[in-house]
Specification:
Elements (H helix, E strand, L loop, with lengths): L1 H27 L9 E5 L6 H17 L3 E5 L6 H9 L6 E7 L1 H7 L10 E17 L8 H10 L5 E4 L5 H13 L4 E4 L3 H9 L5 E5 L10 E6 L25 E9 L4 H15 L2 H6 L5 E4 L1 H17 L8
Parallel strand pairs: 1-2, 1-3, 5-6, 5-7
Antiparallel strand pairs: 3-9, 4-7, 4-8, 4-9, 4-10
């Protein structure tokens, strides 16, 4: 009888251990959730436009992610330093970051890093910004875009445009404008958009291409001559598009996308996709983010955007740059 009881107890222990093992396996195979602070890599210095918008997003996304988000600024190499670090991070869902289009694509074309678009797993788009052509508000030479174009043609190669880096997004914009208008100019690359605008306002440059949110703090000091796009912007209803003036016909601007290192699971992508969507729809976030254009796109749409911008940027290699 004692042997029978002992056998029954032993079998119960075996079943209990199997049950615990099965429960543990189910927990490990369940939906992803970060188990500590999440690192968000920003490939620009603190205070840069991407850094500012990333910190606002992170502030509200923490509520939906359930963990603290630590911003890791990796400035250098026109963004390639940060993107290299993101590409090489462990694909466990604990490190994510921003990729800035088309700067990111341009860095691949120029071979600034060893990564490709396949080194990343896009999660969502955060911000889309339209490019604009600006001059100093007190520069009487250029009351409108046609005056700038006429001057550029009459003084070919003499106009100076400050940019946010060699062949970066604003340099691409200046080149697209000049190509379509039929004049050449001299580009003066700066470290970022703030320095680009400082160069313009300091009279080192004659014009520059930036994005709409970039001029917020200097709106009274600059004059917007044109917008890149087929439609006028609601916030700048009196500013014509380049297309309607007969110049560059397409939309041009930049996108800031959240991505993870390639190799992360679908569960990781889905988790962050849903968390950031919720954050970008949060009324408190929308109130604080009112100064820039939040433009949520899911992982699939963002992946297509990255591919489209890569094709666009690779197409610039032939017949785009006059120098």
């Amino acid at each position: 009888m004692k042997k029978l009881i002992a056998l029954i107890l032993a079998l119960c222990m075996v079943f209990a251990l199997c049950a615990c093992g099965a429960a543990g396996s189910k927990a490990n195979d369940g939906p992803f959730k970060p188990n500590g602070p999440v690192t968000m890599i920003v490939a620009y210095k603190a205070g840069n436009g991407t850094d500012i918008t990333a910190r606002i997003l992170a502030k509200y996304a923490e509520k939906y992610i359930g963990q603290t988000i630590i911003i890791d600024n990796q400035d250098g190499g026109s963004g390639s330093k940060g993107w290299s670090k993101l590409a090489s991070a462990k694909p466990d869902g604990m490190t994510i970051g921003f990729i800035n289009l088309p700067n990111f694509n341009s860095s691949i074309v120029k071979g600034l890093g060893t990564y490709t678009i396949d080194s990343f797993a896009p999660i969502c788009n955060h911000v889309t910004e339209t490019s604009i052509v600006v001059v100093r508000a007190d520069d009487d030479r250029f009351p409108d875009l046609n005056a700038l174009v006429e001057y550029g043609k009459a003084h070919d190669g003499e106009l100076i445009a400050s940019t946010n880096g060699a062949q970066a997004s604003n340099h691409i914009g200046a080149q697209a404008f000049a190509n379509s208008a039929g004049f050449t100019y001299k580009a003066v690359p700066k470290g970022n958009t703030n320095e680009e605008l400082t160069s313009l306002l300091g009279k080192e440059a004659d014009f520059c291409v930036v994005k709409v949110p970039d001029i917020g703090s200097v709106a009274d000091s600059v004059k917007v001559l044109a917008v890149f796009g087929t439609d006028r912007l609601p916030e700048l209803p009196d500013v014509p598009t380049l297309a309607e003036l007969g110049f560059y016909q397409d939309w041009l601007g930049s996108s800031r996308c959240v991505a993870a290192p390639a190799g992360v699971s679908e569960e990781v992508i889905k988790f962050y996709e849903e968390a950031f969507k919720a954050a970008m729809e949060d009324p408190e976030y929308l109130a604080e983010a009112s100064s820039f254009a939040t433009d949520y796109k899911d992982a699939a749409a963002t992946t297509e955007l990255v591919k489209q911008q890569q094709a666009f940027t690779e197409g610039l290699a032939t017949g785009f740059w006059y120098d």
